[in-house]
Amino acid sequence: MTLESPPDDVTLYRQMLRIRRFEEKVLASFSSGIFYGTTHTYIGQEADAVGVLACHEEGDIVVSNHRCHGHFLAYGGSMHALAAELMGRATGVTGGRGGSQHVQWKDFYANGILGGTVPLAVGMALAEKSLNTGRVVFAFMGDGTLGEGVVYESLNMASLWSLPVLFVLENNRYAQTTPIQLHLAGEISDRFQAFAIPVAEAETVDVIEVFKLAQEAVVKVRTGEGPQALVLHTYRYGPHSKGDDTRDPEEVLKYRKRDPLQLQANRIDPDLCKRVEVEVETEVDEAFQRAQNDPLADPASLTLPLDPTP
Amino acid sequence: MNVLQALNGSLHACMAESERVYFLGEDILDPYGGAFKVAQGLSTAYPDRVITTPVSEAGIVGLGIGMALRGLNVVVEIMFGDFIALAADQIINHAAKLRWMSEDKVRIPLVIRTPMGGGRGYGPTHSQTLEKHFLGVPGLRVLAVTTIDDPGSLLKHAILEDNDPILFIEHKLLYTKALQPLNETSEFNLEKSGERYPVYRLKVAGSPPPTLTITAYGYMAELACQALQRLAFEYEVFADLVVPTQISPFDHHLLLESLAHTNRLLTVEEGSHTHGWGAEVLARVVEALGPRLQAKRVAALDMPIPTSGPLEKTVIPDVEGIIQAAREMIS
């Protein structure tokens, strides 16, 4: 299996910008009361989802978490369906049942329990290996996830049985409001290496660098070398959720200066860049507008989760 | 044949019938075959589909969910029912919800088997009856084995015919008990409902119309059968016994049919008394029948299960306790 060149610069930029503008619109619209529940935005981390999932092939599985919008859009999920889901519309990804952090579509699975999805990802990898499908599982986690014990049970089994899973650890340096130095001992990479899972690690917001690292790791996973881990040190520009930001504004500003979108925009002709901006903004506006015009989820659509007396 | 043989035979039959059946658990490889030997022979017959795991209850239930999501029929053995608490998040927040959250686009054909119950002196963390904490979880089915009819077919239906997550409760003391096949028992008249996971209604053969309804599941149903006979022959108290195999979601139609005649209900469970299975059963029948119902609960005392024999016997319900409660209701 040979390494392939990354998607073209404009495609990568457009994909990151779709996430950025979508999330900005979500944050900006929250106070207007059009959403149900809460949200966890991905602004600042776009290079991770786009770079990693550019290595994804049809049929591969993506397991995400509470901060799933970026993963979902990069996976190919519908922007309109995601907006509609946040607004509790019948046309939402899960018809208004799941909301922001419980998204399931095709081979994409997200759930709102931190770390709880990691054994699911490993189980899916075990199934795909057993069925010899050649599919790869992409399991996204954050630094906060590393506090959950079931993660380590999962890493152990993934390595023990040499399963086709890529663990993508996005270290955005905060578990909700708690900085990493207050919640994590030791090194992140050591956690994977303790289970003999090879780690590629980068302090980067460069989508092409992420892509290259991810591709090398995915090729290893796909060719049967067992699980691999990608540790990506990043930063989220927005709050954990909506208004819960207690970070030093100076610190946020420092990271904003190394913006993954700006970095990628610098590789593109400025006129083309502007055109992409306009197109994406139009796409986002239309997705939100259409979602707002969609009918609210109908209580009559509610069904029991299983047949009570089969 | 006993319950252990029935369950073991059923697992062999399921794995033979479908290559999509996988079995995960701790210490399940031959020659050991699991702490209670229910997995005996499986790893020899199906080495690729029987996977011995680390001691990671949350992890292996989560793996089972992931495998089931991708279309396999997965059986996970949890060595002692007490350890199910470690997997509670996986069961409640993942297995039970994912189908519904996806608007039925994904299914989870997963059976989590585990032995519950006391009577063997294993003490506070290896003798509990914890299934009450999993009753009423939307999206989760809880089944309990008895000696009545065919526990093997109950397990087979759960593994091969059900596409939803199931917590499958096997009381430790039942493993060595002989089965009571439906057509061969002369001691009881037996009626069976038509669902996939049936409800049984028993009364002592040839007895007059019952004046009391007892309901129990699992090993307590076994004790209730003994109590039924002694109540009839020693005290001339005649009772109906209603035994569900599916304890959640709970269907009470056979219970109501019986209560229409008796208006007296005694619930028997091995879980601790407060907020137990019996409380929900009573609430349901009171809602259906109104104040004419007379009711009583027999359950374990509200304390951990002690190890020492005389202490353990004091905490867990026994046949004498069931008989005494029944007689108090009749007198």
Strand and helix map with partners:
The complex is a heterodimer of chains A (310) and B (331).
Chain A: H1 9-29, H2 46-53, E1 61-64, H3 69-75, H4 79-86, E2 104-105, E3 108-110, H5 117-130, E4 137-142, H6 149-160, E5 165-171, E6 174-175, E7 178-179, H7 180-183, H8 188-193, E8 199-203, H9 207-222, E9 228-233, H10 249-256, H11 260-265, H12 270-293
Helix pairs in contact in A: 1-2, 1-3, 1-12, 2-3, 2-9, 4-12, 5-6
Chain B: H1 3-17, E1 21-25, H2 42-45, E2 50-52, H3 57-69, E3 73-77, H4 88-95, H5 98-101, E4 110-116, E5 141-144, H6 151-161, E6 166-171, E7 188-192, E8 199-204, E9 212-216, H7 218-235, E10 239-244, E11 246-248, H8 253-262, E12 264-272, H9 277-289, E13 294-300, H10 309-315, H11 319-330
Parallel strand pairs in B: 1-2, 1-3, 3-4, 4-6, 5-6, 9-10, 9-12, 12-13
Antiparallel strand pairs in B: 5-11, 7-8, 8-10
Helix pairs in contact in B: 1-6, 3-4, 7-11
